[in-house]
Automatic annotation (TrEMBL):
GO terms for biological process: transmembrane transport. The keyword Cytoplasm does not apply. It is found in: Cell membrane. This is Carbohydrate ABC transporter permease. Keywords: Cell membrane, Membrane, Transmembrane, Transmembrane helix, Transport. GO terms for cellular component: plasma membrane. Residues 1-168 form the ABC transmembrane type-1 domain. Belongs to the binding-protein-dependent transport system permease family.
Amino acid sequence: MINLIVVFTMWFNAGMVPMYLNFRGMNLLDNRWAIILGFAVNTYNFIILRTYFASIPEALEEAAKIDGASDFKILVNIFVPLALPSLATIGLFYAVEKWNSYFWPMILLQSDSKIPLQVVLKKMVVDMTSRLDSLEFGRDMQGTSEDGYIYSTMVFAMIPMIIIYPFIQRFFVKGVMIGSVKG
């Protein structure tokens, strides 16, 4: 029943206008906490983590209880180390989602000092394109094109994720639990 309730929120969400009104009612407009807390739990990621934790054999928990481990110790010493690949995957999903978020930060954050890089890059690209169109330089301006500026901003936006991925990649290991349960 709990699964159905959680998945129901993924299929039928409130919509943009009620979400905006909720943010406004909680005085979170032009506040970074709106982006951080307002989108902190993703139903899809919740389902991935739940499925992963359900796939961990119960024999590991039973063996730890026989050895006298408390529930907290079982969580910290057994479940979390086994779940590092899934936690790293979800962390990467959240990092990419927050880094590439564009729509809601553009709607909720008004101050130029608070807007994320994607909104800044969009403004730069729109300003550059409109400026080049208004000056009528055409497709070539001193050996560069407006497409070159647009593509360079896209590459600039990808660099942090390209740098982060190799550090997280070590968690994506096949067969973490192979050999953990015998017989």
